[in-house]
Amino acid sequence: MLVLEELNVYYGAIHAIKDVSFQVNKGEIVTLIGSNGAGKSTTLQTISGILRPRKGRILFTDQELSVLSPSAIVAKGISQVPEGRKIFANMSVYENLEMGAYMRRDKAEIKNDITKVFKIFPRLDERRSQLAGTLSGGEQQMLAMGRALMSRPQLLLLDEPSMGLAPILVKQIFAIIKEINETGTTILLVEQNANMALSIAHRAYVLETGKIALSGTAKELACSESVRKAYLGG
Question: ∠98-100-105 over CA atoms, to 5°?
């Protein structure tokens, strides 16, 4: 579904992504793990069109993405849940979900999809009229995920969904990510909590200083001694 070929991305003179190649197959959860500053978020932002590669290609269902605007990439079927959630704080929960469907014109279907989001995240249904900025961190993460689902993505990009959440909420969010995948959405997950990421992913890539250092099934990487020492606390 998604193929990155020798991607190179710069921030000014800083070479942030160096010849990165990987793929995500339809129906998979693929995770990118690595330490802070390894280039994980940069990779997602480049796929979304927020950043432009200086060299290399990004193909989504065999179409070149790196020439498209971020909104055109959403229209192609890719939606991102950004790091830090970036919900619209002064709008209600319901209005945030409507914003997720801003490119759609099928009003009746949009309402149906909001109902589906409320089934996945009952907490949001209870707070549908509440200003999003007054929600807890976990609720804001649920809202950011629900908003991304409103564009009916084929591929969902998740950037650090567990950041700043209590352990019990992290488990809940990861269970929901698995559920979303099981209903047919392909997922590319960037996550610092490597234990949780590898527990739900099918395959994984380790990014180190802008390069792919290791790749394999999630099970293989979870059992790898070097991965355990560097990212799994032992």
Answer: 70
Among residues 67, 16, 64, which one has the least CA distance to residue 43?
Answer: 16
Query: From the centroid of its chain, how far is CA 106?
Result: 25
Q: Which residues contact 85 (CB under 8 A, 6 or more apart)?
A: 140, 141, 143, 144
- Coil, strand, or helix at residue 97? helix
Contact 218, 58 (CB under 8 A): no
SS3 annotation, 128-186: CCCEHHHCCHHHHHHHHHHHHHCCCCCEEEEECCCCCCCHHHHHHHHHHHHHHHHCCCE
Q: How far is CA 41 from CA 1, 74, 223, in A?
A: 20, 17, 25
Q: Would you state the torsion angle of the CA atoms of residues 65, 148, 142, 45, taken in this order, to the nearest 10 degrees? A: 20
pLDDT tens for each residue of 149-162: 999 999 999 999 99
Domain 2-77+154-232: CATH superfamily is P-loop containing nucleotide triphosphate hydrolases (3.40.50.300)
> What does the alpha-carbon distance between residue 127 and residue 121 come to, in Å, rounded to a whole number?
10
Work out the number of other CB atoms within 10 angstroms of the CB of residue 15: 15
pLDDT tens-digit series, residues 133-154:
999 999 999 999 999 999 999 9
Domain limits, the chain: 2-77+154-232, 89-152
- Spatial CA neighbour of 159 closest among 46, 75, 16: 46
d(CA 107, CA 175): 30
pTM above 0.85, yes or no: yes
